[in-house]
Amino acid sequence: MIRNYLKVAFRSLRRNKGYTLINILGLAIGIAFSCMMYIYVTHELSSDSFHEKSDRIFRVIMEDKRNPDNVRFYGSAPAPLTEALLNEIPEIEDHTRLYRTTGQIVYQLDGQNFQEREWYITHSNFFEIFDFEFIAGDKNTALNEPLSLVINRSTAIKLFGKENAVGELISSSWFGSLKVTGVVKDFPENSHIKFNFLLSENPQMEGWKNLLTDWEDFSAFAYVLLKPNVKIATVNAKVPDFITKFFGPYAQVFNAKFQNIEDIYFESEDIEGGIEEFKGQLSYIYIFATMGLFILLIACINYINLATSKAAYRSREIGIRKVVGAFKRQLITQFLMESLLVSLIAMVLAVGIIDLAFPYFNQITGKSFDINLTNLGMYLPTLLLLAVIIALFSGGYPALYLSHLKPVSSIKGQEIGGKKSGGMRKGLVTFQFVLTIVMLVVTLLIGQQLNYIQDKDMGFDKDKLLVIDINNGNVRRQFQTMKTQYEAIPGVESVGVSSRVPGEWKNINEVFAKPNSANWEGTDSIKTYYMGFDDGMLETYQFKLAAGSYFTGNDGDSTNVLINESAAKAMGLTNPVGTTINVKSYHTYWRADYNAKVVGVLKDFNFQSLHTKIEPIIIATWNNPVRPIDYFTLKISGNAPKVIEGANAVHEKFDLYSPMEYHFLDQQLNTFYEAEERAGLIFKMAAALCIFVACLGLLGLASFMVEKRKKELGIRKILGANEVSLFVLLSSSISKQVILAFIIASPLAWYIISNWLAAFEYRISIGPGTFIVAGLVAVSIALITISYRALQAIYSNPVDSLRSE
Predict the structure, then answer these.
(1) What b-and-e string marks burial along 656-686, b requiring 16 or more CB atoms within 10 Å of the CB?
(2) Could you give the C-alpha distances from 580 to 516, 518, 561, 593, in angstroms and in order?
(3) Could you give phi then psi for residue 110, rounded to 5 degrees?
(4) What is the per-residue pLDDT across 677-726, written as a single tens digit (0 to 9) for each?
(5) Alpha carbon 350 to chain centroid, angstroms
(6) Fewer Cβ atoms within 10 Å of its own Cβ: the N or the C terminal residue of the chain?
(7) Which pTM was predicted?
(8) 247 and 215 in contact (C-beta within 8 Å)?
């Protein structure tokens, strides 16, 4: 029986090659895109879940209520905090902590110098909590000895040419001789912890002793492991007493919270200074999952529309089958078999499309997805289940509709696409275009927001700024000489020196500040960002002064500072110039407490991404007591490669250990919006596929519509109807459906894009223009799609139309 169903199904598909091709191609694209979205979404949602104890591992988040109007959360904590938590709260089973070094660390191997920006230092029990797979070495003992070194596979191969690098030695001026005690596999993309070099702590070193007892330095990434079956609410209930005991006078302004590591990727938007390299947005997951469903729905709607429209040509077949004894369930099975066959063929084609599309998709998403014979088995059950669901969904209604046709009227050809089926087709076409217009509007507005980011005035000149890292003490000691030589390079307009730069990708130093004469209500100070500039930064970055003056460049400037307008407002200063403010830094290596004089106020500028509002900042001189200089910035006007070549020659005179590390500031600023750029590209791809698949269905429906009205068109032409009136006749129905879709889609698109734009502190306003453009584009695409078949019918010989059956 099944063999007969298959034979009839193949015969029917072969007889209607055009409709079959449209259905298979549309479904294949829908399956391929929805599967890619499924793989992407499940990968994102599985962040950090590969650790066996992931449900019990929590990161400590510090809450800072020092400024009640701007409560802040930090992804780092004091180093001694986790051990104190372990001792004070019995529900905590274990703890560990990580530290990240700053700046380039030069190390030697076989007489050659290498450098690495981020080394991590950790507690000896790190691998008892986190499950990173070891290739070589013993995870239970790898970090037992102080300054034991664990590296990842890629680093082992790069340095030693082999995976098993246990026992190999490298030396560093910071840490001395280091022995490799373990090699771990390269980290999963969905891990928030990644390192090339991981050292165990050395508690005997003087610096470590100070750090491990310092409750004011928030530089440790802290984790606790709960005992089995313990709820985090139980731990939270004991935190207030803990904070009172260990934070003393600061207990009113600090609090400790706990974040499960599986939530770090999506729920860290408001958390500053965490270890995670990227932060996800859960809204994107909902949007991407919905887009995959949209395209699949459009493809299924095509199948439903084309199958019901073909009822006119299958009615006699159905009538004869019923007359000779076919039961309704047999007819339903036959039509579902055809639907399943189309779905399975589309699924096979979809696998090929996925394989071809993954390299481009990986480029957009920054992932490394792949489908091959090795992992195809992992996806096969999902693909087969999807094919069956699609067959039932897209073939269910046509099967029921066709099987209910009456035998006598079917044989006579009287029941051909009644009002009910015609109304449903129109409704489905309208729904298709609702989805398509939503995608168009959202895609256009995302593009406008990204352009706005590119063009927005940041409060300084970000173009043609070459930023060069300072990674050597000799450079810091002779920076004035280097600056003079940089200025002498042809094509360099000016040079500035600073501890950090606007658009900083590393952590910007923060200090506590208050005016000595201020009367604070409920708090002693504000926490504000802090950078050190020399006198060349004003010209190089074109900062604008709101009041006072800039630095003179004299050594007497060392305690002078500038503040931005936001800092003046936060400190309640109406006339800031001349005010003395007390500045305190609690960083272990740059601890300071001094009085600074405000000599000027800078107009607010965006020194962070446009996702956040402009925060208070203090600009000190280059020789401030808090943070040494870290960058040269060259404003260039000439040939960039020539300037880089000249700058490199200067760098090599003063830094004998590390190569010149540089970037252009505008390119660095763009990295703040990589997630939005990627989302925009995915939206463009999805919108294009939505349009393409919808047009496939329209093309099939246009063919049916023209075929159905062929005689009517012939009679109208004979009676004198011109080509324009005939085209309007054929296209008016589709145009009305698209216009209705536009009316329905507009508020839905507005809701989606409004939520997306809410992630930006600075954003475009949503006007009607974009919606009108999207509507016109949708109407134009629909008319262009049906025009081929419509014009073909309009310009055909009316006599031939009247002679046809």
Answers:
(1) eebeebbbbbeebbeebbebbebbbbbbbbb
(2) 6, 10, 10, 13
(3) 55, 40
(4) 888 888 888 888 888 888 777 776 676 666 666 666 667 767 666 767 76
(5) 25
(6) C
(7) 0.77
(8) yes
Assign 757 to helix, strand or coil: helix
Instruction: Identify the weakest region by mean pLDDT among 45-59, 200-214, 267-281, 746-760.
Output: 200-214
Q: What is the separation, in whole angstroms, between the first and last Cα of the chain?
A: 34
Strand partners, 513: 526, 583
Helix, strand and coil percent figures for the chain, each rounded to 5: 50, 20, 30
Residues in the chain: 805
Check: CB of residue 284 under 8 Å from CB of residue 364: no
pLDDT at 755 (0 to 100): 83
433: how many CB neighbours lie within 10 A of its CB?
A: 30
pLDDT per position as a tens digit, 83-126: 999 999 999 999 999 988 766 777 888 777 777 777 899 988 99
Percent of the chain with pLDDT over 70: 83
* Cross-strand partners of 96: 223
Q: Which residues neighbour 723 within 8 Å (Cβ) at sequence distance 6 or greater? A: 794, 795
Cα 595–chain centre separation: 42
Per-residue model confidence as pLDDT tens digits over 397-449: 666 665 555 555 544 554 445 555 556 667 777 888 888 888 888 888 888 88
Contact in structure between 296 and 35 (CB atoms under 8 Å): no
Q: Average per-residue pLDDT in the chain?
A: 82
Rounded to an integer, the average pLDDT of 205-216 is 76
Structure tokens of 63? 């809450």
What tokens appear for 606 in the block?
């965006």
For residue 743, the SS3 value is helix
210, 207, 225: which is closest to 85 by C-alpha? 225
SS3 sequence of 514-581: EECCCCCCCCCCEEEEEEEECCCHHHHHCCCEEEECCCCCCHHHHHEEEEEHHHHHHCCCCCCCCCEE
> CA-to-CA distance for 191 and 640, rounded, in angstroms?
37
Please determine, for residue 521, whether its predicted confidence score (pLDDT) is greater than 50.
no
The values of phi and psi at residue 483, to 5°, are -60, -40
Contact 536, 497 (CB under 8 A): yes
The whole-number average pLDDT for the span 350-373 is 85
**Cα 23 from Cα 620, distance rounded (Å):** 67
Could you give the dihedral angle defined by the CA atoms of residues 662, 663, 668 and 669, in that order, rounded to the nearest 10 degrees?
A: 110
User: What 3-state DSSP class applies to 102?
Assistant: coil
Q: For residue 520, what pLDDT is reported?
A: 45
Q: What is the CA radius of gyration of the chain?
A: 34
CB 577 within 8 A of CB 599: yes
Phi-psi region of 229 (alpha: psi -120 to 50; beta: other; left: phi over 0): left
Residue 495's H or E segment, with its range, is: strand 492-498
Contact assessment for residue 600 and residue 620, using Cβ atoms and an 8 Å cutoff:
no
**φ, ψ (nearest 5 deg) of residue 520:** -85, 145
CB 702 within 8 A of CB 785: yes
What CA–CA distance (Å, rounded) separates 620 from 605?
A: 16
